[in-house]
Give the backbone structure.
Amino acid sequence: MAEPVRSSSTQAPPTQAPSFGYAVMRVFDLSIGEMLWSRRTVFMALVVGVPVLMAVILRLLQAAGASQISVNNVAVTGPVIFGVMLWMFFLRFSVPVLGVFYGTSLIADEVEDKTITYLFSRPIPRSAILIGKYLAYLACTICVVLPSVIIVWLLIVPLGGGSLGANFIDLLKDLGLLALGLAVYGALFALIGAGMKRPLLSGLIFVLGWEPLAGLLPGYLKRLSIAYYVQGLVPQAMPSNTPMSLLQGLFREVPSLTESLIWLAIILGLCLWFAARTVTRREYILEQ
């Protein structure tokens, strides 16, 4: 008499979905190479290359015997010049603009290239895709922006008798500030890129239109900009008791260090959370 057929005990168990952290790192590993070799990286190198070129010109002028820069017959030292360049070229322009061009593209480029369906078909959370690409953006921009700042610092600070050793701690603070600025702007524009159909235009309007305007308006409207809280972390970029103290007159109302850090952390956390939530819940319709 034939024995009943039994189910095989060697049947392979169902494939387990990867953890959130593993999925984030896989997306990060995939995205970082694409970002580093993209046209946006060439644009980023050109943007941060302008202050480096200016620093080289200033050093060449000094080597050629040019007179020291002065305002109202008072010599301007290298640390003061570096502080102004840090504020004007990096914090007020390079960091926000790079945040716009990279942050808005994290999801929008996948939609435009019609590759978003391939990412979403993977057995990983959609939010992990957004976070992984955001971390890749942060690593890519930090690896390009911060070295350029160090080069400018090495070229500019010695002008007028400035000491590299005496200003090294300030440099570390500036590098941390730039990294924080890239993180916050990137998170904001990652949210805009995940939720809007034309995110790049909206981002440029915010950076080049609203933020400069908000800084000039009275009342609490300036608090609706990231630049307001960033400037509370830049005492070196707005030096006092120097010929460049005019810069401080443009920003009479500056938030405290604690207030700036708290609000920047809140903006960063909320923007990333809402961006991940938007990517998880939104249905992306690909245009034919």
About this structure: Strands lie at 70-71, 74-75. The chain has a mean pLDDT of 81.
